[in-house]
Design brief:
The protein is mainly α and 415 residues long. It is 65% helix and 0% strand. It has helices at residues 3-30, 36-63, 96-114, 124-147, 152-155, 164-182, 198-217, 225-253, 258-272, 281-298, 301-305, 313-331, 351-381, 388-393, 395-400.
């Protein structure tokens, strides 16, 4: 065990956890004032339910000994049993419990990301059941595929430093499935649904940016050169994503917006997530710029195809994850991390790019299909969506009997 590595991983875990309240503010500022507490509550609920499920069975399903064909772990480590023997397939310089804690924070924020797509219209009780089932049925298998040495994508040599497939593509295309099941907000796209507090959103974006250093650099699981490079790449890609997004806004709309700056920075960090410890600084510039441009263009898709992704989770996280995962196949370099591979631009040929593309397709297909089935089942049994009257009044009062701002009308539960 290395004390420095342990300290870095624990600090990084705290940074990643802090991202979820940051996400709550980021999303909360973008919804209308009648739904801000409902939005924040969904993120905080994820911090509660995922923690318990991760300890009971989630970690075992994601990182326990493979239960067959690299698809999912077994239940041999349920309740965090047998951690004394280490985490299967990993040679850690930190206590196994530190690894459990760090990965738990990833499992918390991933379902919280989906809440941005379904904003303004979910019943809280149904949301709670959906998230609990989704974690076990969708997140844990994909985490096993890409993060666990027993997973089938890991065996094929797919690279995913910090969650391009597991967190970003997974949450993005799960969001697409969820919004197709739950349907559009009343009045969308004809009614203007402006953010109620862009300062909230900018503060949340700043917290996300801060926490992402733990998300990416912490994934090195040691305090050394790879973590340092991942830290630098995260900053560079965020900056270039921001610049790419607002440049496109300026060219297309004639102005650059604060919301665009925040969204672009997030898009850049999303795209660098799978690449962070495997590429150099100069490729990070290209990856961030590409994400900013692609993601701002992808926002238009929801209007073209008619799906109501409220806060653009599909465009930013789904497409940003695709951009980063594929570009990793071009720019990965063993000179940065000997545990990685050489991509096409580093003399490694097209093999890695092909494997990365396979990971993208497999993750999209499973996350979309499995989430659609989970959402349909919950909708059939409980109903996912609030009533028309509740949607018009807002989630804050109808689901939580609270109001974010003084003077807002209160709704008594059951009355």
């Amino acid at each position: 065990m290395n004390a420095g590595d342990t300290a870095w991983v624990l600090v990084s875990a705290a940074l990643v956890l802090f991202m979820t309240p940051g996400l709550a503010l980021f999303y909360g500022g973008m919804v209308r004032s009648k739904n801000v507490l409902g939005m924040i509550m969904q993120s905080f609920f994820c911090m509660g339910i995922v923690t318990v499920l991760w300890v009971l069975v989630g970690f075992s399903l994601a990182f326990g000994p493979d239960a067959g064909h690299g698809l999912i772990g077994g239940l041999g480590m349920a309740g965090l049993r047998h951690l004394g023997a280490g985490v299967p397939g990993f040679h850690l310089s930190v206590p196994p419990m530190a690894f459990v804690i760090f990965q738990m924070m990833f499992a918390i924020i991933t379902p919280a990301l989906i809440t941005g797509a379904t904003a303004d219209r979910l019943k809280f009780g149904s949301f709670a059941v959906f998230i609990a089932v989704w974690l076990l049925v969708v997140y844990c298998p994909i985490a096993h595929w890409s993060f666990s040495p027993g997973g089938w994508l890991y065996h094929r040599g797919v690279l995913d430093f910090a969650g391009g497939t597991v967190v970003e593509i997974n949450s993005g295309f799960s969001s697409l499935a969820a919004v197709l099941v739950v349907g559009r907000r009343r009045g969308w796209p004809h009614e203007l649904m402006s953010p109620h507090s862009l300062p909230f959103t900018m503060l949340g974006a700043g917290i996300l940016w801060f926490g992402w250093f733990g998300f990416n650099a912490g994934s090195a699981l040691s305090a050394g050169p790879v973590a340092t490079q991942a830290f630098m790449n995260t900053q560079v890609a965020a900056a270039c994503g921001l610049l790419g997004w607002i440049l496109m806004e300026r060219l297309r709309e004639g102005r650059a917006t604060t919301l665009g700056a925040a969204s672009g920075a997030v898009a850049g960090m999303v795209a660098i997530t799978p690449c962070a410890g495997f590429v150099g600084t100069m490729p990070s510039i290209l990856i961030g710029l590409a994400a900013g441009v692609v993601c701002v263009l992808a926002v238009r898709a929801k209007f073209r195809f008619g799906y109501d992704d409220s806060l653009d989770v599909v465009a930013v996280h789904g497409m940003g994850g695709v951009v980063g995962t594929l570009l990793l196949g071009l720019f990965a370099a063993r000179a940065i991390d000997p545990a990685g591979s050489n991509g096409w631009a580093s003399g490694g040929g097209a093999g890695l790019l092909g494997e990365q593309a396979l990971a993208v397709v497999a993750t999209i297909a499973y996350s979309f299909a499995a989430t659609w089935l989970v959402a349909k089942a919950v909708d059939r049994v409980m109903g996912l969506r609030v009533t028309v009257a509740q949607e018009n009044e807002g989630l804050d009062t109808t689901q939580h009997a609270e109001a974010a701002y003084t003077g807002a009308p209160m709704h008594r539960i059951g009355g």
